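for the record, two folds in this file. i put them one after another cuz i was lazy. first one right below, seq on top, structure tokens after. the second one comes after a little note so u can tell where it starts
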Amino acid sequence: MTFGDKLIELRKQSNMTQENLAEKLNVTRQTISNWELNQTKPDLDQLKSMSQFYMISIDELVDNEMKSIRVESSSENFSGGRETNKMLLKIKKLFINEDNSSNRKRKFKMYLITISIIVAFIIIFVATTGIWTRFNANISREKAMDIAVSHAGGGRANTPELDWKIWRWLWYVEVVYDGLMHEIYINPNTGEVVRYEIDR
């Protein structure tokens, strides 16, 4: 008797339809059908739920399947570790549903959603902060100095530094002119002065 046959027998003894049993075990009717047709196997949690529902141990639930594995393996030409591994793989398939494509599809969808969210976040961050400007400024340091001195009306400028201000990278230049400190922020792509302060 296969595992699927055992499930059919237990379900019929309980006078239940596949729909009724699916509802009790919190799975779909198609899942019950796949188990009974030996197309897929329940995972360990599902086996526990079934054993509790039918009030039998998991051992009793899978006993016939285990016997068939033992008979099959003993009838083979047993040549040590290789055959043992085959038997262990068959037992593993009883408890871990490796054919459960719906679980794989669900996990794959979750990975895609997670990756999409991460990529969207990176795109939004890069688009709103202009972070590429930090490495690819169109306006050179020398040009930023010239713009700052011109904007202040003259004077001596320090070496410009790229600074994170107003949610973007800007050239920050200090210009000393007429005894005053002029703080000037310049867009590194356009050369536009976006902020100008005089420290008195």
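(here's the note) second protein begins now
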Amino acid sequence: MRNLRFTVLVAGTALFGCLALPNGADAREETVEAYPAGSRPVAAPGFSAEGILGSGLDSQYGLMAGARGGYTTDQGVYVGGNATRADRGDGATDTLVGGELGYKYYATPKLELRPFALAGADITSSSDLLGRRNGTRLAVVPGVLAAYHFGSFFVSAEGRLQVLPTPVAPSLLGGAGLIF
């Protein structure tokens, strides 16, 4: 329960920052092209890296920590990799390593919304001798991320729903990163 409160605090702080900061905060000219009135901001191509921290929303996962890195095309398509380790309530850990595909949409020049899908390997490691087996299974995790940009720096909040392997496991994570 402590992990859930911490995750809600991190994700809530990041989301509050995304929604409540005044428009006078640092401009994001380096990563968002100028756009005419009435058109949407577009993503500038480039690399990004982010650290993430959060928790599962049910008993499946506790504390989660990881990193992602990727490249955004000039059309807003995000292609990258993600590695996240999750502590499980039964003494085991799951490490999710996979590829990520998403689309960056800028609701404003500073507010990014990114639906994504993560697919890869879910590697389970158990430190007990109670018959639980280590193993690797296919993982499929759709999600959505909201990020607020301060120049090349950004903070984010994301929700994920691990649909494979079962049982289904929702989680919330907050993050911070850089665009290069």
